[in-house]
Amino acid sequence: MVHNKKGVPADLTGADVVVFGHSHKYSEERRGNVLWLNPGSCGPRRFHQEITLMQAEVASGAIRVKKVLIPHEVN
Fold first, then answer.
1. Which residues contact 38 (CB under 8 A, 6 or more apart)?
2. Residue 40 C-beta-side C-alpha neighbours within 13 Å
3. Which residues contact 47 (CB under 8 A, 6 or more apart)?
4. How far apart are CA 62 and CA 50, in angstroms?
5. CA 45, CA 33: separation in Å to the nearest integer?
6. Per residue in 3-25, pLDDT tens?
7. Predicted TM-score of the model (pTM)
8. In this structure, are residues 51 and 42 in contact, taking their beta carbons and an 8 Å threshold?
9. φ, ψ of residue 7 in degrees (nearest 5)
10. Is 25:56 a contact under the CB 8 Å cutoff?
11. Angstrom distance (rounded) from CA 1 to CA 23
């Protein structure tokens, strides 16, 4: 887990999942055997992006991820 994916080490031997942030934009991408996840931003709306968070469940050696979209008030 890192704030910015630029901070992820080059050698991910033994890693199954990388969790990062910084961009405030939800993403879920598999690169080879590694799942790259950005839960987005569940705080105040920034950069006209969705307000999101991520639910993750690990069971029997597998991870299941769900994007949760947070409704926001329109003024």
1. 5, 19, 20, 21, 22, 23, 25, 26, 27, 28
2. 23
3. 24, 25
4. 27
5. 32
6. 888 899 999 999 999 999 887 88
7. 0.79
8. yes
9. -90, 0
10. no
11. 14
